[in-house]
Amino acid sequence: MKKALPYxxxxxxxxTTVSLAQDILVNSDRxxxxxxxxxxxxxxxxxxxxxxxxxxxxxxxxxxxxxxxREAGLEVKVDFAGNIIGKRAGKNSSLKPLAFGSxxxxxxxxxxxxxxxxxxxxxxxIQTLQEQNIQTEHPLEVIIFANEEGGVVGSRAMVGQLNxxxxxxxxxxxxxxxxxxxRIGGNPExxxxxxxxxxxxxxxxxxxxxxxxxxxxxxxxxxxxxGIVAIEWWEFTFTGKANHAGTTPxxxxxxxxxxxxxxxxxxxxxxxxxxxxxxxTVGKIEASPGVGNVIPGQVKLTLEIRDLSSEKIWxxxxxxxxxxxxxxxxxGVEVSITHIEVASKPAMADxxxxxxxxxxxxxxxxxTMSLPSGAGHDAQEMARIAPMxxxxxxxxxxxxxxxxxxxxxxxxxxxxxxxxxxxLTLDKKLN
Length: 431
Description:
The chain is an alpha+beta fold. The chain has helices spanning about 20-25, 30-40, 55-70, 115-130, 155-160, 165-170, 175-185, 215-220, 255-275, 310-330, 350-365, 380, 410-430, and strands at about 75-80, 85-90, 100-105, 140-145, 205-210, 220-230, 230-240, 245, 280, 285-290, 295, 300-305, 335-345, 345-350, 370-375, 390-395.
């Protein structure tokens, strides 16, 4: 991979003079130091992170991050959902703000890069602008979202999609979402008041680790995200007849495990056979009564399909539904299917922002790849109210949500510099 860009003013030769604002670069050492310091909040014996939302580790980390934001010159507040928002005035107060950021909470025993890279890079961008005495035309907002890992809670609240039922859900910290939000300085009773309308922001950007191995394997510096996939879930229940495992002849059994097993294999074959980057997973299987010497009477399993196209997801599901019914009939059992809920809708990145990200990366001498995001992000919710763009950096071996999650110092600096350059380009082009 290309070396990280040094902390200095770069001079690009061209037929015209390039402005100072286009040449500035972030302080990669400072960015890395901040991330290493943040990783101490919740680090466990396995060297992973237990900084789940609303925990004492999360509380301490939020204080640290707010301190960094204030040092960078941001006016900091916590909104009713517990999101940390830092504001910087622009030259033209009539323009809509450019917003960017991510989250700092983690999954239990997670890594130290998923979320913090984007959050700390956003703060570093502001710090760099402050040091260079550059004031953008647009107001700027850095947003550190609350409880991303527990269901993009903060961003859902910001766009008016967090309902009363969601506030009752118990978080990884053992608190309900409402209790957790209160603990970090929010006010769940007033969440409806904070919803932003479509068009209130000029754009939203999020820098994130890829959480996959495409960039790392191909040795590409920057991922230009096409969009964030839709996710749909179903529960398939195969019902047969429970009976004694030793006294029931094979020919007389109504064993629901058999069609369930064939269905699991069919998911892999069907999803792989379709052209594209869709993925399908049977992630949970439950046999009842779940005893080694009893033929199960019922087998439940979950099916998840992800793709940028909801139409493709449902087409694949309809194919798999037919196969499930065929397998059930073949083994003399019944099958019922429940669509659990729409986990998320696809969110396409704004085409013009994608182009700006690509051009910003190439201007910095970095290689790029267009790719979808197979994971959900706060940007997915923010796309409901503003043009959205996402920047990916490589994840070593594609590992994420685990202690071995890692992105190099140079890759973080590359991502932060692309974020900085894209924001400055947006600031100029959206005037």
